Amino acid sequence: MAVCVLLRSFSSNFSTVLPLLTRSASRCPLQLAPKPYFGRTVASANTLVTLKFTDKHEWIRVEDDGVGTVGISNFAQEALGDVVYCGLPEVGTQLAQQDEFGALESVKAASELYSPLTGEVVEVNTLLADNPGLVNKSCYKDGWLMKMTIANPAELDSLMDEPAYERYIRSIEE
Amino acid sequence: MTQQKYGLLMNQLRRTGWFLRTGNQELWTRSSSIFLESSCSSSAGLVLQSQSTDVHQNLALEDWIDAHVDLQQRSILLLWRNRPAVVIGRHQNPWSECNLPAMRRAGIPLARRRSGGGTVYHDLGNLNLTFFASTKAYDRQRNLKVVTEALRGLRPDLDIRATERFDILMNGCFKISGTASRLSRKSSYHHCTLLHSADPVALSTLLRPSSPGIHSNATPSISSPVANLTDHAPSLQWEELLEALVQQYNKEFGLCATSILIDPSDESLFPGVGRMAAELCSWEWTFGKTPKFSIETQLELTDKHLDLCCSAHLLMEVKNGLVDRCQLDVPTDWLPPNLSVQISEVLVGERFCPHRAAAAVTVLLRSQSGQLHRRMHLLCDAVLSVIG
């Protein structure tokens, strides 16, 4: 997704209009300022599943069944501000790498989402319809956006691993 | 600027690499410009004024600039206005935001823009400003400062302030400007309205729901009392306003651009813009992009012939602008259930549109006569009026 580095101004009016968005204790301390550690690796029962990142701040995690779960990074959700709407694709949509697959609307702007790989959408996160703020609260876990097949696994090599993404973030912020 | 000089400017812009070309189109090289890289930093910024008052053409022009112009080191201000139109945000529901039947009667089109935000009414008394910049340089407060400072310069006695929500208020409580934006791969645009002398009656009449009982998670508009600049500064002329804004834009961003008139329908200058406008006009974009919603309401039905009335319950679910589900609960002594089921079935899969729905039920109505025909007709009319 597209990200703005400057100005993270929060519009307080929004939270009174949209009761689903809350601003208080539920905010994770990681979200207060970008820090090098993102908590990106998720340990599942037997294996350590790692994330790959795009330069547009989407991540993809290859699950045990070979399906990829897609979301946006902490850096992206912070820069976006409070998400108020998630426009996600229909299940069955065919996507090529870098295709626009939807948009997130936040207090800041409507922002396109770009597919990290080529594949087919097999599931979208329906919880986001009533709770778009999950993208801010839990961008690597409950705030996942969609799941897709991986038609061309070699494309994963073109994505950044965690250390590379960290370096990339630092270079943007300078 | 004369037509000849304008053509020269556009050619120079192409040669200096203002435009990015993709695909199999001509690759423009980034050679240095003799015309633009003068001592004055005009190459860093441009002010454009659209000659068109067609909302779809102007929105398409925004898309075109966003997609084709290299904004990494440069910025653009686009000034435009439209003939009467209602413009909804990317993820909004037109049936809950505006009065579609009234708009149809008045011949006022609906447009869905690609940026977020709420619903606005445009007419020739409303000025639109679009600030194009790189994603890095995206700064709405700074852009709005251009507007507030320009207005303060023109009429110091007016209290003009930008809010945290990026509205601009006049004299503490009247909204004169609202903001929306779009962030793309590398570029951004932030656009805002500015009420100079718009029609307040049309504005308040049209920005009302078409249908009752809509349940949706589409982004809602936040309604505010509005006023025109000319309500409190009657002598403020349109041209005066534009000039002040251009001057302030130049001052704020350290530029010396003069306003250039452009024709957004000109395919030779903006190749592919026509296709972009056609997409924005399409039903699939305007209505089909509406987030899933449901309508639930009571229908009051009166059979005047027998002086009998009853209440029916309607539930419809609409997905991608098409009726996904329709449930009609009508008292069985008023109308046999198989007939109300037939009405529901014939609507499913059709566009959520009164014309399409009317065409679909007409066929059904032909098969009935007498009292049943009359009652089915009443029921269909009631359903159609909900569709708006």
TrEMBL record, chain A:
Cofactor comment text: Binds 1 lipoyl cofactor covalently.
N6-lipoyllysine, modified sites: 108
InterPro entries reported in the protein's UniProt record: 2-oxoA_DH_lipoyl-BS, Biotin_lipoyl, GCV_H, GCV_H/Fam206, GCV_H_sub, Single_hybrid_motif
Location(s), subcellular: Mitochondrion
Cofactor(s) in the UniProt record: (R)-lipoate
GO BP terms in the entry: glycine decarboxylation via glycine cleavage system; protein lipoylation
Transmembrane residue ranges: none
Signal peptide: none
One Gene Ontology cellular component annotation held by this UniProt entry: mitochondrion
Alphabetized UniProt keyword annotations: Lipoyl, Mitochondrion, Transit peptide
UniProt xrefs under CDD domains: GCS_H (cd06848)
Organism superkingdom: Eukaryota
Chain ranges of the Lipoyl-binding domain: 67-149
Family according to the record: Belongs to the GcvH family.
Function: The H protein shuttles the methylamine group of glycine from the P protein to the T protein. The glycine cleavage system catalyzes the degradation of glycine. The H protein (GCSH) shuttles the methylamine group of glycine from the P protein (GLDC) to the T protein (GCST). Has a pivotal role in the lipoylation of enzymes involved in cellular energetics such as the mitochondrial dihydrolipoyllysine-residue acetyltransferase component of pyruvate dehydrogenase complex (DLAT), and the mitochondrial dihydrolipoyllysine-residue succinyltransferase component of 2-oxoglutarate dehydrogenase complex (DLST).
Subunit structure: The glycine cleavage system is composed of four proteins: P, T, L and H.
Protein name: Glycine cleavage system H protein
Organism: Nothobranchius furzeri
Lineage, opening ranks: Eukaryota, Metazoa, Chordata, Craniata, Vertebrata
TrEMBL record, chain B:
Coiled-coil ranges (or none): none
Keywords of this entry: Transferase
CDD domains, sorted: LplA (cd16443)
Annotated BPL/LPL catalytic domain residues: 71-257
Domain of life of the source: Eukaryota
GO biological process: protein lipoylation
Gene Ontology molecular function, alphabetical: lipoyltransferase activity
UniProt cross-references to Pfam families, sorted A to Z: LplA-B_cat (PF21948)
Family note: Belongs to the LplA family.
Name of protein: Lipoyltransferase 1
Origin species: Nothobranchius furzeri (Turquoise killifish)
